[in-house]
Amino acid sequence: MVFPEYRPRRLRKNESLRSLIRETHLSPAQFVYPVFIAPGKNKREEIPSMPGVFRLSVDQLQKEARECMDLGVNSMILFGLPEKKDAMGSGAHAKDGIIQRGIKELKNKAPELTVITDVCLCEYTDHGHCGCLIGDTVDNDATLEILAKTALSHAQAGADMVAPSDMMDGRVAEIRAALDEHNYEMIPIMSYAVKYASSFYGPFRDAADCAPQFGDRRSYQMDPANVREALREATLDVDEGADILMVKPAVAYLDIISRLKDEFDLPIAAYHVSGEYAMIKAAAERGWIDGDKVMAETLLSIKRAGADIILTYFAKDMARLLQG
Ligand code: PBG
C-alpha cells in the first residue's frame, strides 16, 4: 500500500470527510471548572495572572453555576480562601468555613451541578504547606487525620465528590475510611494520584494565596523526572479506594496520562493547571498565537493522550467554542 495506491489526503479533502474520521472529541460534560471562593459580598475579582478567572464571593456562585451548566459544563471543583489561616489549617474543616458555605450555596441553588472539592491544607495553613509541620517538615501521619476531617466536612456540607491534592502517603485510605464510617460510602474520591512538584502552579498560588512561606513542596509532590514512580503512586491509590485517578499538570505530562490510561481501568483525569492556562492567555494577548485555536488544540491533546476528564480554567471558553 504505497503511493500512489494509498493517498492519506483523500480523507482530508473537506471538513465533512475530516470529521467523519476524527478520532478524538471534546465534550463539555467531561470538563471540570475550577472556582476560587473568597470572603465578602458581591465580589468578583479578576486574578491578575489568570485573565478571565475570578475570585468569587459565595453569593456569586449561583450565577457561575448557571453559566457553566448552560454551556454543558456540569462539574466544578472548589478552592477556598479562608478569612484566617493557622498552623494546623483548621479553616479547612470548619463547619462554617468558606468551602462549606460555598458547597451549601451551590447545592441549594444549583442542585444538578456536580460539586467536587479540593482536599488540601495549603490554602488554610499560615506557612502555606499542604499539611501540619513537625519542625520544618510536613508531618505525614498527623496530617492524615486533618485531611480526613476536611473531606468529611465537605461531604457533610453536601459535596458530591472529594479530590485530595496534598500528596501525603495513605490519605486516600484514611479519607475513604472516614467517609464510610459516617455513611458517605457513595461519595467518590478523585485522587490527585500523580501530582508533580511543578513550576506551572505559580498563578494558582497567587490566586489562592498559598505559596509555601519557606522551602518548597518537593518532599511530598513528585519529581518531574519520574514515570515508574507515577505508576506506583497510582497503584497505591487504587488499592486505597480511589475512584478516579488524576495526573497534574497535563501538557508537560502527556506521557504520564497515556501510561496511566494503559495501565489502569479507572477513569483518568488531567488537570490543565494555572501556569499552562496563563501561558496561552499571555501569548494570545500579545497576538503571538491564536488563543482559541491553541486552547482547542491543547485540550484535544490532553484528551488524545487518554484523559477522560479535564479540569481546566478554559472549560467555559472551550464549551462556547464547541457550541460555535
Ligand atoms: C493544592 C492545589 C494546588 C493546585 C491545585 N490544588 C497548588 C499546589 O499544589 O501548589 C494547583 C492548580 C493550578 O495550578 O491550577 N495543593
TrEMBL record:
Matching Gene3D superfamilies: Aldolase class I
Residues binding 5-aminolevulinate 1: R205, R217
Annotated residues for binding of Zn(2+): C120, C122, C130
GO BP terms in the entry: protoporphyrinogen IX biosynthetic process
Cellular component terms (Gene Ontology): cytosol
Residues binding 5-aminolevulinate 2, per UniProt: S274, Y313
Active site positions, chain numbering: K195, K248
Xref: SMART domains: ALAD
Pathway membership: Porphyrin-containing compound metabolism; protoporphyrin-IX biosynthesis; coproporphyrinogen-III from 5-aminolevulinate: step 1/4
Enzyme Commission number(s) of this protein: 4.2.1.24
NCBIfam families: PRK09283.1
Assigned protein family: Belongs to the ALAD family.
Name of the molecule in the record: Delta-aminolevulinic acid dehydratase
Species this chain originates from: Desulfocapsa sulfexigens (strain DSM 10523 / SB164P1)
